[in-house]
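re: ur question from yesterday

yeah so i grabbed the chain u mentioned. its 320 aa long if i counted rite. heres the sequnce exactly as i have it in my notes:
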Amino acid sequence: MKKITLHLKDLWSITKKTTVAWNTADPFRQSAVIAYYAIFSIPALLVIIITLAGFAFGKEAVQGQISMQIGTAIGADAAKQVEQMITNASTQKNSIWATIISVITLILGSTGVFAQLQVSLNQIWEVKVIAKKKWLKTIRDRLFSFGLILSIGFLLLISLLLTAGLSVFSEWIKTHLPHFMLFVFMLINFFISFGVITVLFALMFKILPDARIHWRDVWIGSIATGLLFVLGKFGLGFYFGKANPASTYGAAGSIVLIMLWVSYSCMIVFYGAEFTKQFAVHFGRKIEPTKDAEIIKLPEDKELIAEKKEAVSKEENKKG
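ran it thru and got these structure tokens back, copy pasting raw so excuse formatting
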């Protein structure tokens, strides 16, 4: 494997190209589409994750932890709204057929946002699914997306286990060790959370796009995205706390707030994905589609087409 040396000028060049390409791709429209799908996917997605992690901690404990994280990011009212969504989505049905239909609906609903996210990531990597393989590819992508949800549940479980362990140990530190050790454990907790987020982005960048991406590029991009996401989380929390942009929407304010948060977060994810692509291209990696995809052929410039036609016409006149 060829060793990569990343200089400051390389990082500046990659960042500049990333910013230009990201802005050209109209991330505001794409993120708004993802936010729309997310409103329908979030309840089912959280029900599955809470069920998986609940086997170890109990559903109420996991749901409380998720609500606390949501409340920190976008406010208590939105967290209560999400809790109500989860309750409604997880309501048990009486008949067997109703239960089966409910489970299928949960799976389809939870994977919908990932399917749309895959479309956006494919546009960034300039690939598209081959038309004749689209149906089979769609089914397989849904299964992969569900596998990604299981991975999210597993990562959340690990994060909760480690966080709970550190929390218990911090109580022991208060009585037996100097107080500065609490700061050390706060840093450890931060790096654990950051590590979980980074792994999640790495899985998304590796699995979802229909392009062959080297793990080396994936890790660089996911670390950069993780840093941007953590900074964005604090920035969005501060903005929502001060500006309260959903206050004018009344009862629908919480839904609007969730859509805004998802939309802004997606723009960060798209920037990270674009950074991953530009990093790979900068160091000589070609964009290679998977076996079920192909490179998007961009329409040729009209002037270039006219020049080609003129050249062909001249060649035909010479032969005539």
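noticed a couple things. The mean pLDDT is 75. also Strands lie at 127-129, 211-212, 288-289, 293-295.
anyway ttyl
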